[in-house]
Structures are given as structure tokens and as C-alpha cells.
Amino acid sequence: MASGVRGSWGTRMGFLIAAVGSAVGLGNIWKFPYITGVYGGGAFVLAYLFCILLVGLPILMAELTLGARSKRNSVGAFITLDEKRGKKSPWQLGGWLGVISGFFIMAFYSVTAGWSTAYIAKAISGFSGTAAEIKAEFDKIQNTPSISILWHTLFMGLTIAIVIRGVKQGIEKWSRILMPILGIILTGLCVYGLFFTSGGMKALAFLFKPDFSKLTSEGVLSAMGHSFFTLSLGMGTMITYGSYLKQEVNYFQTSLTIAFFDTAIALAAGLAIFSLVFTYNLEVSGGPGLIFTTLPVLFKQTGMLVALPFFLLLTFAALTSAISILEVVVAYFIDEKGWSRVKATLGVGGLIYLAGILCTINDFTFHFQGKERNFYDLFDFVTTNYMLPIGGLIVSLFVGWVLKDRFSEDSEVGILLHKIMRIILKFVTPILVIIIILHGLKIL
Ligand code: PHE
After folding, report:
1. Is 55:393 a contact under the CB 8 Å cutoff?
2. Nearest-CA residue for atom 9 of ligand 1
3. How confident is the model at residue 403 (pLDDT cuts 50, 70, 90)?
4. Please, what's the b/e burial string for 69-96 (b: 16 or more CB within 10 A of its CB; e: otherwise)?
5. Does residue 252 surpass a pLDDT of 90?
6. What is the pLDDT of residue 268?
7. Between 20 and 30 A from 206 (CA), which of 240, 266, 278, 371?
8. Ligand 1, CB within 6 Å, residue ranges
């Protein structure tokens, strides 16, 4: 495929910002705090950090390498780099899984981001009422499909509008604008929570003092699943973003930078939110509604000045991630099916939009793995905890065993580091992923 059709990043810095923009999203600000609350705090955080280091970082490096070396989408990358088998390569399953995961993730992601967009409007009109009333208000949005659909439509429309403009003019340009604003607002909120509220120290202890008796096997599975979700791994996002690089980069350094910002932002968001939870004696295990029901209690006092930037931040962070999810599926249709960007973006975006509508129907539930789950929960649970880790497992094995010399060929990182990374990709990451999945399924 001619490179002119595919598009590429304007600068390396632009690529880095877009990649950090993909990683930093609802996963950091909405999901990390709420699952940390649900799974008991410090011990979960430790399991998560362990997974970022031993599973996330190596796979991030592997995905970027796959993309940059092949200059293809997540399916095409395996076909191109498996030189012996080409189109018959069984490894392309990893790419396929990614395209399918992208479809389902984008559906519930857009609905959640829609709630965040709704809260921008609420921030402007001002929060009021008791903590219980604020919670009831969120429950109403969550339980009224027509409201969720309205905001989902708006968010999905924004995502499509950016992706349709292409890699440089759309994704890169908007990430450059939105990401720095996000960094500034979050730093402010974190400093406020830590030093100016009475719950700051309790939040620190909750996040960093592990109590292993609270860690369950579902908690460990979720810690691993979340390390994939938050770094945008296991579904070909980093393969796709890597494929728009014009020259090679230092994969280790790049991956470390992305993982560092991603983790720092998640921890900062956790500190900011739990400081408030402890200050106002709110429920730590509030689930997906956590930030929508805790923060407004504070925002009632601070007013629009803090509330508006916060929900803008959350929506921006979600947007720079959502475009990267949609792009995986769009890139597949452009590269492999020869579709134009406009056709691919509108076609795929339209279908995902419909899947998102399913996620707004709250009271239709299935019994799955010990719990009643609606479409929203099901899409989230299955993609994050199973599909992304399996996608990542395939990437890890492929780069570790099949890509051999190509991986270390012309990198500056040093032979030793590459040897270590190769061993991790060949053995450590795959074994860890398999054990945790089996453990989560209660087979092990
Ligand atoms: N990493 C994003 C977040 O933390 C979500 C995402 C998942 C993006 C998978 C791309 C692929 O919100």
C-alpha cells in the first residue's frame, strides 16, 4: 500500500504525544480509581504496577516495533512480518482479535465518555444537593437510555470528526492541543486533594499501603487486564500508531516514556479522587459511578472554576484515546480492503455507534462468570480481562519467537537490554498472562 494513502506523523514528538494521548484516557481517570476502590486499594495497586512493568512495558515495546517495521495495520503487520507464511500466517489472529476488541471497547468507551460530556454541561449549570442527591442524579443518567444515547451520539460524532481528518491533521494536531491542558488541570487537582483536604493522607495510605488479605483472584485478573487497557495494548493500537512513524525510534525509551506518563497520571487521579472520598466519607467502592458521584460533592463548593476544567479534562483525555481505538479498525479497512478514509471512518463509526446504544440499556442482563452483567459490563469485562491479554500474548510470542533478529537489529538500547527484553517476551510475559487468565477463570 502506498505510504501516501496511509498517512504518517508530522514529527516524532507529535507521535509521542499522540501515543501518550491514546494511553491516558478514561482508563486512568475514571477506571483506575474505581477498580482500585472495588478491589481494595494498595495491594491491587501493587499488582497493577507489577503488571505494567513485566507485562505492559515489554508488550508496548513489541507492538511499536511491529508497527514501525511493517508500516501496516494490526492484521497486516503480522502478515508482512511473518515472511515465510505471509497471508497464511496464523499469527494474524492477534490482529483480528484486536480489530474485534476495538469495536466493542469503543462502544462502552463512548457511552462513558458521553457521561463525562454531560457533566461538562452540569458543571456549567452548577452542582447542588446532598451527596445522596448527587448520586441519584448520576443513577438517573445511567438508567435512562435516551439521556446516555444523546451524549454518546455527541462524543462519537466528535471522535469520527477527528479520525476522518487523518493522522497528521486530525489525530496528531488534536492530541498536541489537548494533552498539555490535561496535564495542567490534573496536577492542580492532585495538589489540591493532597495538601488542601483532610483526606489527603488517608488517600496516600489507601493507595500505597498494601493489605494483601483484600486481594482476590478477580482483582489480580483485573490488575493485569487494566495494565493492557490503560496502555492501549493487546488490540493493535500501538501497532497502528507505530506504523505511522517515518523513521525508527528508540523503542525502549519511547515505551518507558509512555508507561511513565500513563502510570503517573493514573496515580495522580487516584490521589485526587480518594482524597475527596475520604474527606467527605464517601463510598470507596462506588464502581463506575465513582468519579461522577464523589467529585461533584466537592465541586458544589468550589463551583464551576474547578468543575468545568475537570470534566473538560476527562472528556479530552477520553477523546485522544477514543480516536486511537477507532483508528485501529479504520486502518484495517483502509490497508486491507482499500477503503477510503471517509468510507472506513463513517462505516465503522456508524456500526460502533449502534453497539454503543446496546451499552445504554441497563436492565437487560446476562449471568456471566458469577455476576449479572448488562451489555456495558459484559463488553468491558470480556475485552479488558480476556481479549486484550490474549491479543498481547500473541504479540509477545510473535515478537519473542518469530521476529528474532529484526527486533534488536538497529536499536540503540544495548545488547544486554535487548536480551533481557527478549527473554521476558519469550517466557515471562506469556507465562504470567496465561497463569493470570487461568486463575481468573478459576481453572488454576
Ligand atoms: N488506554 C485508554 C485509556 O486508558 C483506552 C484504550 C484501550 C485505548 C485500548 C486504546 C486501546 O483510557
Report:
1. no
2. 232
3. confident
4. bbbbbbbbbbbbbbeeeeeebebbebbb
5. no
6. 94
7. 371
8. 22-23, 25-28, 105, 229-230, 232, 235, 237, 321, 324-325
